[in-house]
């Protein structure tokens, strides 16, 4: 997504750390009891949201972190007022919300402004995501997906049992955003520059999903990968994701060969 906000649900201490490219010491948070948490990420135009939709339609609980972060600035209230106080009245839209396009240009070019925006948004996002997880667990869900565009940029891998990154060729990504969202090429490239590179996604994700064909092919690949992950993660006891997740996940990743197939 092209939101100027982080699109992540993490501890408040991650806000400043993420903006400087470092990881805070306490990034791990407990998932709701009984849940296994799966991270889904990808750069602008890669098709992450399409994959999230396919998985949601297949009956998987998906929490859209970017949607929760957008709501902070898209609904008049405390979040909007705090943003206007920090960045200025010129960023207030006629609707009483935030002029997202104008603010995006600022925060993608200014690390300090980006950190300030994260500080405004993250507390409210955390509370919304925690409630969504409790509702999923109460409904009997065992697997919950966090649709998080900047999961890797904020060094949040250790919050998830597995991380899936959606990849697509650079020019295809640019063309999709220009065509589908009405953005110009310069805007898309500025967002790409602020996000992780594909090489970083390949190195740090547990699974890759390649979106370089038609919608039917993407659907097949996404559902195949989801079934593989369900067998892997839910075939036995749920893997704990909590305060000690960084150490346990590091040990687990080292114990098996990382699967970075693009999906079949």
TrEMBL record:
Q: Which residues form a coiled coil?
A: none
The EC designation for this entry is 2.7.1.24
Where, subcellularly, is it found?
Cytoplasm
**What broad class describes the main subcellular location of this protein?**
cytoplasm
Amino acids binding ATP: 45-50
Give one GO molecular function term.
Answer: dephospho-CoA kinase activity
Q: Does the keyword ATP-binding apply?
A: yes
- Pfam families registered for this protein in UniProt: CoaE (PF01121)
Catalyzed reactions: 3'-dephospho-CoA + ATP = ADP + CoA + H(+)
Family the entry assigns: Belongs to the CoaE family.
Protein name from the UniProt record: Dephospho-CoA kinase
Name its species.
Brachybacterium halotolerans
Taxonomic lineage of the native organism:
Bacteria, Bacillati, Actinomycetota, Actinomycetes, Micrococcales
């Amino acid at each position: 997504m092209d939101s100027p906000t982080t699109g992540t649900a993490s501890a408040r201490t991650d806000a400043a750390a993420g903006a400087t490219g470092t990881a805070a010491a306490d990034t791990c948070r407990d998932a709701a009891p009984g849940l296994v948490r799966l991270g889904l990420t990808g750069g602008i135009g890669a098709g992450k949201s399409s994959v999230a939709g396919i998985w949601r339609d297949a009956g998987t609980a998906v929490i859209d972190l970017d949607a929760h972060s957008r709501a902070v600035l898209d609904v008049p209230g405390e979040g909007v007022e705090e943003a206007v106080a920090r960045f200025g009245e010129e960023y207030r839209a006629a609707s009483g919300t935030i002029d997202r396009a104008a603010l995006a240009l600022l925060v993608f070019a200014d690390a300090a402004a980006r950190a300030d925006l994260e500080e405004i948004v993250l507390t409210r996002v955390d509370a919304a995501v925690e409630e969504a997880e409790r509702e999923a667990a109460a409904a009997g869900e065992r697997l919950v997906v966090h649709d998080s565009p900047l999961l890797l940029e904020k060094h949040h891998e250790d919050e998830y049992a597995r991380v899936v990154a959606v990849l697509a060729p650079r020019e295809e990504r640019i063309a999709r955003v220009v065509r589908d969202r009405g953005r110009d090429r310069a805007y898309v490239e500025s967002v790409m520059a602020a996000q992780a590179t594909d090489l970083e996604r390949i190195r740090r994700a547990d699974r890759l999903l390649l979106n370089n064909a038609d919608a039917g092919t993407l659907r097949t690949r996404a559902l195949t990968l989801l079934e593989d992950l369900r067998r892997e993660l839910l075939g036995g006891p749920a893997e704990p994701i909590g305060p000690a997740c960084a150490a346990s996940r590091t040990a687990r990743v080292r114990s098996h060969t990382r699967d970075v197939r693009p999906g079949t």
